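for the recovery benchmark. tokens below, seq after
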């Protein structure tokens, strides 16, 4: 299991612990770009986030299956998670050393604006590929 690390928002009021995996990914969907002010670079936590008592966490239900956690004081984007809590992806910028994570994947690659590109080679998935992976198909619902 990954080591426990502490993360914080910009103002420090939302302090939390997580067990981030080593590999990070980028989401280029329109919601993540608007929410993060750029590309959303995140790392999956092996366990749910544990926030300090009294942390002013706010949750925005952004889709039928996902929600976004942010600080109610400074507005920092903290994490995206499935509504059932099965998966949590934390912004690598919340950790003291975001460079510790290997950037290995880009999702919603077909939604990426043409004015930037990442220098390293990664696995990529289109919007349709991501949705096929997370949305139930007819007969499976």
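predicted aa per position
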């Amino acid at each position: 299991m990954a080591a426990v690390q502490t993360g914080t928002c910009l103002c420090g009021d939302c302090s939390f612990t997580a067990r981030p995996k080593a590999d990070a990914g980028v989401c280029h969907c329109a919601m993540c770009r608007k929410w993060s002010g750029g590309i959303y670079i995140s790392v999956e936590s092996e366990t749910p986030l544990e926030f300090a008592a009294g942390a002013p966490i706010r949750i925005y239900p952004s889709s039928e299956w996902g929600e976004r956690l942010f600080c109610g004081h400074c507005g920092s984007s903290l994490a995206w998670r499935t509504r059932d809590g099965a998966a949590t992806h934390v912004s690598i910028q919340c950790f003291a050393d975001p460079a510790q994570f290997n950037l290995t994947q880009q999702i919603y690659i077909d939604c990426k604006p043409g004015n930037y590109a990442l220098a390293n080679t990664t696995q990529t998935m289109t919007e349709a590929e991501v949705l096929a992976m997370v949305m139930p198909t007819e007969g499976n619902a």
